[in-house]
Predict the 3D structure of the following.
Amino acid sequence: MQSKPSVQDERGASHFTPKTSEARRASWRRFYARNRERMKAASNARRRRYKRECPDRLETHRLKCRYGLTHEQAEVALTNAQFGLCDSCGTLSAGLHIDHDHNSGKARGMLCGGCNLALGHMKDSPERLRAGAAYLERT
């Protein structure tokens, strides 16, 4: 198999670019194996810099991937969280949690820790919540 010569790198070493995709993948795997630590360090540095420079974009992306929110929905959720009001009880809370349906993964709202735990313990069942409310009213 013939390879076409590529440009020399900064050290002046001559490299060849393989023609087939299998050969390119094998070449990349060999390169990565020889330079694993350097590649990891560079990747980690890029990741840390991005987290430092773009925290809002990172959070929006996390909300989209984890809960299926669009960019606009994620922005609204983050804005509401900044006001600190729980969607369930309306109390002011410093740290809100994203409530989501465990079956579909879709976000439902921003809740304080107590409301989020209560819904979780009630297995997200409206019947259980009504039964719990009835119990509290009886006692």
About this structure: The radius of gyration is 26 Å. The longest helix spans residues 36-53. Helices lie at 21-34, 36-53, 55-67, 71-83, 113-121, 126-138.
